[in-house]
Amino acid sequence: MMKFFLLSFFFLYTLNAAQEMVSIDHIYSKEYHKCISKAVSGLDALNCTEKEIRVQDKILNESYKEAMKRIQKFRRVDLRNMQRLWIKYTDAKCDFYYHKESGSGGRNDASNCKLEEITKRGIELDEIY
């Protein structure tokens, strides 16, 4: 019985993670999808991802500004502090993927992490505030 429960939990967790990835992927720009489809090397893919990070970061900044306008004045300091902590967490999480000894693949993983985290945070700010 316990084995069935654990397998069910793992399946649902995996399904949820896959759905989340799909739901984020459609938010990326058309230019990003076009760029990635033409990428023939890891460096090409990295360049596409770095460009999309800049696009999604602008969207995130707009979402943050809008959230600051919509929430009560007394909560703005809390949101600012939370955003600063989110930045530190995201930097630490994504920097973990790249180390000078990990090679170029680690750099791509770190950039993909940044893109995903920035995009998810923008969605979160739009939904919560």
CATH topology: Substrate Binding Domain Of Dnak, Chain:A, Domain 2
Strand coverage percent: under 5%
Compute the number of strand runs: 0
Write the H/E string, N to C: HHHHH
Please give the domain count.
Answer: 1
Q: What is the arithmetic mean of pLDDT?
A: 84
What does the largest sheet look like?
Answer: none
* Share in helix: over 70%
End-to-end Cα distance = 42 Å
Low-confidence stretches: 2-22
Structural class: mainly alpha
CATH architecture: Up-down Bundle
Query: What is Rg?
Result: 17 Å
Shape: flat
Number of helices: 5
CATH class: Mainly Alpha
Please give a quick description of this structure.
This protein has 129 residues and is mainly alpha-helical.
Structure overview:
- The protein has 129 residues and is mainly alpha-helical.
- It has one domain (2-128): Substrate Binding Domain Of Dnak, Chain:A, Domain 2.
- 84% of the residues lie in helices and 0% in strands.
- Helix 2 packs antiparallel against helix 3 and helix 3 (42-70) packs parallel to helix 5.
- It is flat.
- The termini are far apart.
